[in-house]
């Protein structure tokens, strides 16, 4: 059961089942709540606070993933504890998208790929073809 002061800032969204945080969000869109500890206020991520109140402590070394993909959601049923690496890999950042690729644009396997100066993975056959073209130009 949530404390009444916390429930004031939650607005259930009937279609998705999300509990949307209606108070302060940080610059990345994650909900923020203030806890008062003996006159010393402390700002915490609201989704973490709600999860801990309802489900118990977050296991050591794990972070919470929003399975609904809505950052302002504080529904503990939508929050899954996982490692930070696994959480990042589920996202849509450039690093995560590239890490999920298994083949290059020419269809070669990326198992033994190298990283080029631009930070992109390049397979061995494409790297060899690139180096061959460079040698032919000089």
Which residues sit in consecutive blocks of at least 5 with pLDDT less than 50?
Answer: none
Would you identify the CATH architecture of the largest domain? Alpha-Beta Complex
State the secondary-structure class.
alpha+beta
Question: Whole-Å distance between the termini?
Answer: 72 Å
CATH class division of the largest domain: Alpha Beta
Main sheet record: 2 strands, antiparallel
Rg over CA atoms: 22 Å
What is the residue-averaged pLDDT?
A: 88
Helix percent band = 25-40%
Question: What percentage of the residues does DSSP assign to strands (E)?
Answer: 15-25%
Number of helical stretches of at least 4 residues: 5
The side-by-side strand order for the widest beta sheet comes to 1-2
Q: Strand-and-helix sequence, N→C? A: HEEEEHEEHHEEH
Structural key phrases:
single chain, about 140 residues, alpha+beta, Homing Intron 3 (I-Ppo) Encoded Endonuclease, Chain A, 8 strands
Topology:
Elements: H1 4-7, E1 10-12, E2 19-21, E3 32-37, E4 40-45, H2 46-55, E5 63-66, E6 79-82, H3 84-90, H4 94-100, E7 114-115, E8 121-122, H5 124-137
Antiparallel strand pairs: 1-2, 3-4, 5-6, 7-8
Write up what this structure looks like.
The chain has 138 residues and is of the alpha+beta class. It folds into 2 domains: 4-100, Homing Intron 3 (I-Ppo) Encoded Endonuclease, Chain A (Alpha-Beta Complex), CATH 3.90.75; 101-138, no CATH class. Helix content is 30%, strand content 22%. The strands form 4 sheets. A two-stranded antiparallel ribbon has the order 1-2. The protein has a two-stranded antiparallel sheet with strand order 3-4. Strands 5-6 form a two-stranded antiparallel sheet. The termini are far apart. The model has no long low-confidence stretch (mean pLDDT 88).
